[in-house]
Amino acid sequence: MSSAHQTSRSRRFRQVSGAISALAVAALLAACAADPQYRAPEPDAGRGWIQPADTSATEAQLAAWWRSLGDPVLERLVEAALAQNLDVLQARSRIAEARALRDAAAGAREPSLNVGASVTRRRQSRNGPLPIGSLPGVSRDQTIHEGGFDAAWEIDLFGRVRHSVESADARVQAAQEEANAAHVSVAAEVARTYLSLRGAQRELKAGEAWVGTLRRVAETVRRRAAAGDLAMGEVERSQAKFQAGAAVLPGIRARVRATALGLGVLLGRLPEIELSLADSDRDEIVLKAIPVGERADVLRRRPDVRAAERHLAAATADIGVATARWFPRLAISTAGGFQALDLGDLLKSSSQVLSLTPLISWRILDGGRVNAYIRAAQARQQTAARAYEKAVLSALADAERALSNYRFSLASVSGECAALVSARRGYDYAKRRFEAGDVARLDLLDAERSMREGERACARARTGAAIDLIALYKALGGGWSEGSS
Description:
By secondary structure, the protein is of the alpha+beta class. It has ten helices and four strands; from the N terminus they run ααααββααααββαα. 33% of the residues are buried.
């Protein structure tokens, strides 16, 4: 071969190598320019609460708020539910799934290795393009023994695998926040159901006393009517009030049992498991103003907002995965092993086979599919961004609404229970006058009826305020701590 010919070949090789290098550098620069950079949004929490509020709350106060209510039964129920509730267990399973998918995505960064062995029995054609079977001394029938490995490694130059791992990491974190949200919801629902049970029990107790008073009023009116002191119309009216009051009690009893059955389901057990609570009683919880922290603290603490932010991060990383389709995929593959016609020769050095293959694959024409994938990823990212914004606004609205409801509930409790105090004083005064002979028995019973109605109203107001207190803890994102999921 002439020197001029060799020089020409070397020049062409350098030109091709230079073109490939320039193309690779251009692709790398384009990939860097198109690489999506995620920055966590900083939501606007506003200037402060609409209603005046104590902003001194700490994470520890809200993490296990049910312990501050002073009811050991409630503590037992909430902590049992957080360990056994089926929604919580499902959320934990979704964390395990997300972690497994993350490990699968990260595995693409590592080389893959396959090993295998085979035995092939083959008959060669005597009339084919390579008539090996017709060569002298070569058997037409052959048995080929093979054993070896093949390995491949993708060089993640343009970030496809890196962004896949980033997306998977964010989804693991989102699953953890969704599990925290399940903790918040389950703790609040158990407490709400339990306090509804206790409230229904107190309402039933007050209602039974009220109906007893109505019965005594009806009996007294009947006796006075029989004596000619009252018209028969008064008898019918008092009897109607008694019957109407008595008709309320079965509904309250049904509510007591229904809430007790609901507690069993929330604990992930048979409905009747907590039915005995319907026959027990506890002191009322203390209703007081609670520290809520700043509005920005609520956004940092609410698991649904945190989960929405992590979904946004995952969707942003998915844009990088889609964009990486534009660029070449670089890989190195190698294969090696042994091949022989005679099994006894298989492991000899002369039977070795080996290959090393650098590979570049670049999709130039694809009918616009890559652009479509990128647009779809960008649309998903915008959807996630809007979902995050909605979660922020919903969290602030929930907290403001819950804070307002609880504040007005406390005012209602104050008014109803003050009215009860007055009604009790009125009853005590009427009782003293009755014992002194200054008023009739019917007047005393009327004062007692007013007192019993006040007891029912106060019990309902306290139950409503207790439930609004639980709703406030939930709206503040209380009920979880780092590592609880």
